[in-house]
Every structure is written in C-alpha cells, then in structure tokens.
Amino acid sequence: MSSAWQNLSERTVYENPWLRVNLADVQLPDGRHLDHYVLRQRPVALATTVNERGEALLIWRHRFITDSWGWELAAGVVEDGERVEEAAAREMLEETGWRPGPLRHLLTVEPSNGLADGRHHVYWSESAEYVGHPEDDFESERRDWVPLSHVPDLVAKGEIRSANAVAALLLLHHLRRP
Question: How many domains does one find in the chain?
C-alpha cells in the first residue's frame, strides 16, 4: 500500500492575478477521502548581493498580515514570459535601487507546501551597482547592508522571520564563513 496522498481532482473556488484557491478531493493511503484547500501560486523570485565586507543587501519592512517588522530579501512574483533570474534582478532594482551583478541561483524553497504550491527561487550576486532611489520605496522603510555574521542572532531575535529569507541568509552565512 502506497503512503502517498493522491489528488483525484481539483476545482477553483477563487482566483485573482496572484493566486488561485482550489478545493481538492484527496484520497489518503487508507482509502479515506478528504476535502483539502490548495493555494496555487505564481513563482516568486528573490535576490540579494553579498559585498566584499560580507554584508547582504536587505530591506526592513512591515508585514501587515502578521503585524511584524523584519529584514527580508527583495522579492516578487515572476511575470508571464519572464525568466526567474530576470525577475529576481528586476525586483532587487525596483525595491532597493541596486542593480545586481551576475546572479547565481542559491536555493529554491517551498515555504508552505502543506497548503500551497508556491516556489521561491533565491538568487545572489557578489556585486551590485547603485542606480538611485528605489522605484518601489513604499515596500520598505529602509534598505541596508547587514553583516552575514549577524544573521544567526537576527534570526534568533525574530528580526529575520520570513522563511525564504531565513533559509537563504543562513545558507549564505554558512557558505561565506572564513
């Protein structure tokens, strides 16, 4: 007997340009069925730069849904016809005013895979060029270069709480340690 849950069918109960809410008929391994809501989401692209001093470019922003403040990476949905890496570079420029150098894929995470199919693709570069004040400055209170050496403490204090930022910054901290 398989231990996999089987999605027998889905129907959309709500839809907008960013997501669909579907209701799935799921068969459990023991044969029982359950209705399970599923969020179908567009891919998300994120980017940061780590400079020669070992600092990552982050944004400090408020999230009204959880009423919390924290450091995050510039991020946004991948537009139709856009490559994920292009979206990551675009979002970093729009939200920080910095154009990243050549981007490298760091990781892909599924932040809520028990409820949603969203995949967050994180990229990083070792250089960036300051172009000017961010076009989307309403998305954050400030932008700053945060030492990767501070990341574990910032995570522990709850100042980095977004799952994609926690995963990416802890991995960069690990990879960039002397």
Answer: 2
Query: Residues 151, 77: one domain?
Result: yes
Query: Do 109 and 163 meet the contact criterion of CB atoms below 8 Å apart?
Result: yes
At 178 the pLDDT is 60
> What is the C-alpha separation between 79 and 123, in angstroms, rounded?
17
For residues 29 and 56, membership in a common domain is answered with no
> Does any domain span residue 1?
no
Which residue type occupies 169?
L
| CB contact at 8 A, 143 and 59 | yes
C-alpha 46, offset from chain centre = 6
- b/e sequence 90-122, b meaning 16+ C-beta within 10 Å: bbbbebbbbbbeebeebeebebeeeebbbbbbb
Could you tell me the residue range of the domain that residue 24 belongs to?
Answer: 6-41
Please tell me the total number of residues recorded for the chain in this structure: 178
Sign of the CA dihedral running 158, 159, 162, 166 = negative
Same-domain status, 104 and 124: yes
pTM: 0.91
State the burial class of residue 33 (Cβ atoms within 10 Å of its Cβ: 0-12, 13-18, 19+): exposed
Regions of the chain with pLDDT less than 50 = none
